[in-house]
Amino acid sequence: MQKYSFNFGIWGMALIVIALSQFGALDLYIQSVIMFIGINVILSSSLNVVNGYMGEFSCGHAGFMCVGAYVSSILSVIFFSQNAIFGAPILPPELAIIGFPIVVIISGLVAGLTGLIVAIPSFKTRGDYLAIITIAANYMVISAIENVDVIGGSRGFMGMRKVVNAMTDVIDLPWMMIWVILGTYMSIWMIRRFVSSTYGKGIMAVSQDEVAAEIMSVNTNKMKMAAFMLSSGLAGVAGALFAHVLGYVNPQSFNIMKSTECLVMVYLGGMGSMGGAVLSAILFTVMLELLRFIIPAIDTGLHIINVLPDSYHLSQVWKWVLIPLTLILLMQFRPEGLMGNKELPKLFPGLKKFYKFK
Amino acid sequence: MSLLSIDGLTQRFGGLQAVSDFNIELEEGSLTSLIGPNGAGKTTIFNLISGFYQPTEGVITFDGTPTSNMKPHQVTSLGVARTFQNIRLWHDMTVMDNIRIAQHYRMGYGVLDAIMRTKNYYLREKEIERISTELLEFMDLREYAEELPTNLPYGLQRRVEIARAMSIQPKLLLLDEPAAGLNSSDVDGLITLIKWIHDEFDITILMIEHQMKVVMSLCSWIKCIDFGTTIDEGPPEHIQSSETVIKAYLGDDSI
Q1: Arithmetic mean of pLDDT, B66-84
Q2: Residue ranges covered by each domain of chain B
Q3: Which of A169, A174, A210, B53 is most buried, taking the most CB atoms under 10 A from its CB?
Q4: A46 CA: distance to closest CA in chain B (Å)
Q5: Helical H runs in chain B?
Q6: What domains are defined for chain A?
Q7: Do the beta carbons of residue B147 and residue B91 sit within 8 Å?
Q8: Once rounded to an integer, what is the mean pLDDT over residues B71-83?
């Protein structure tokens, strides 16, 4: 019973969300927030593989996301839509429903291969030095794309909306919602299975004592490669979904700020905790969206009590003060994160009765 | 044929000659000890055997295979296991996981098997589980299987580390100061344990040890090194009365 209850719960919730968005009970804004939650869950749980389980500090996660976003956008536009640059679609747009998941998987694979930019230096480099390499990788990806004019360069790339519309034309369902939910579930499922296998636990052995791991027959280079490629590949999947939810990509939306967002989510949840990564992604996205309403409210409040001059208004930019501030507070008072590298059932043993997730 | 043969091994770190022209032949089933004052190069020799350093000169042959250019995990998969002077267990994983992960080289499945949970995955995991449980039972550690090593007393941690090395199913076991930091009753336990492992699993053991009680009661051959060179070797009785060894440890009394 408890073997299935978790899956039942998740799929039940997913179905409800899909049904609600299908019949218009959820407005588009809420729908997009839910989709961003899904994407952020993929991002934080995949970054958690490297930063949490393997104990390295990767701060270029958005770079791989960028690769996924661009690869998927270009592929889906070439194959399924009429476009000024690439001309007529290669395949009939009606096939987009079948084609899209394949495109997402391909972009994940390409992003995974891009992960080698970081994985190969990681054989010899650790810690701070590797962190610098990951930042470099992030910039490399962005600059490379900015300088390819065919795909829009720094102006960005669009046309994915048509592909999404082509899907809706065939069967009228909230397709992006379905893909995001599927993508999120599959990503977590992959990571969970990998890190709970004895093979995958080699990653944690590397993190806890690399010398001992190598001496105890763990092929540390291979483990690092697996971790980085899995992590960046899933970031690519998140990027692909992100690009199609938004319908527009721009290299600058994958800069170091986005990577920082991913880092915040991982450290908020607690390194090396799957549940933590998921919960913090949800919390973070909701918090970010709430600030959209909270900041104007504070602004009005401060004007009423005449603290602020009339000419000055608190803008949304203030969220980039508030979010880093939460990070500072978190590091001060709970450096191990919300979950502190433990899983939910360990924190609340009572939960074990209800679910088992593998 | 000897299990491990080292010929003319030399290791230099910059200007420092840590090991110079070291030779050893380990017969299968032998129990040999390396002794020598601090900084004599004993641990360096271990690091060279386990592939952690690439020797500057010399040849290391294990079981007929030259290992000088291999990576540590490759050397280990040939059947060379070792423990560390300061215990290096994976502190955030249970004893059971420590034992399981050390069998990485014969895991027999890859990333895809782990994600797809293929039949092969379940088969191999089951096998690893069985071997690990058996080993823990053998080593009297069954009740600590789900404990974190950091919560165990030092003596038990040593035992876990030896168990972890044994899970590699080695032909050669390298013990780096197994008695360091143990109290006298733990040391007696350790002597029994090593003797038992040696007889039961029929493996070759090479160890570094400072406690003469351990060395004298276990080893049939002792090699004493100082400044990276062998200064004397022989059975325990010979070493006990060897003047060069005493001189290396206690210094020269002539002025």
Answers
A1: 93
A2: 4-95+165-250
A3: A174
A4: 14
A5: 42-49, 72-79, 95-101, 111-116, 119-138, 154-166, 184-200, 212-218, 236-240, 243-250
A6: 2-255 (1.10.3470)
A7: no
A8: 94
Judged on CB neighbours under 10 Å (0-12, 13-18, 19+), B69 is: exposed
State the pLDDT at residue A88: 82
Q: Which residues of A touch B97 (CB under 8 A)?
A: 198, 201
Nearest CA in chain A to B92: A208
User: A189, A196, A215: best mutation site toward chain B, by most B Cβ within 10 Å?
Assistant: A215
Stated as kind and residue range, the H or E segment containing B60 is strand B57-62
Look at B125 and A211 and tell me if their CB atoms are within 8 Å.
no
Q: What is the pLDDT of residue A354?
A: 61
Per-residue pLDDT reduced to its tens digit, A102-120:
999 999 999 999 999 999 9
* Phi/psi at A163 (5° precision): -65, -45
The string of pLDDT tens digits covering residues B107-135 is 889 888 999 899 999 999 999 999 999 99
| pLDDT confidence tier of residue B204, bands split at 50, 70 and 90 | very high
Residue-level pLDDT at A311: 83
**Cα dihedral sign for A107, A111, A112, A116?**
positive
- Binding-site residues on chain B for chain A (CB distance < 8 A): 50, 52, 71-73, 76-77, 81-82, 84, 88-93, 97, 100-105, 107, 109-111, 113-115, 117, 121, 125, 128, 164-165, 168
What is each CA distance from B29 to A90, B173, B174, B219, in whole angstroms?
A: 69, 11, 13, 11
- What's the pTM? 0.91
* Residue B254 reports pLDDT greater than 70: no
Q: CA-based angle B94:B120:B103, to the nearest 5?
A: 35
Strand locations in A177-286 (E): 248-249
- How far from each other are the two terminal CA atoms of chain B, in whole angstroms? 46
Quote the CA–CA distance of B194 and B219 in Å, as a whole number.
10
Parts of chain A with a pLDDT under 50: 358
Would you tell me how many other CB atoms lie within 10 Å of the CB of residue B46?
24
Q: What pLDDT does A328 receive?
A: 87
Contact across the interface for A194 and B114, Cβ inside 8 Å: yes
Tokens for A2, please give them.
């408890």
Q: Is B62 helix (H, G, I), strand (E, B) or coil?
A: strand
Interface of A with B (CB under 8 A): 190, 193-194, 197-202, 204-205, 208-209, 211-220, 226, 230, 341
Contact B45, B82 (CB under 8 A): no
Task: Report domain B4-95+165-250's class.
Answer: alpha beta
Instruction: Give the Å distances, CA to CA, from A57 to A46, A48, A52, A201, B32.
Output: 13, 10, 9, 18, 43
Question: What ipTM describes this predicted complex?
Answer: 0.90
| Beta-carbon separation of A205 and B101 below 8 A | yes
The pLDDT assigned to A87 comes to 79
Tokens of A14: 């997913």
Of A152, A144, A148, nearest to A84 (Cα)? Answer: A152
Q: Residue A195 carries which side chain, given as an amino acid letter?
A: V
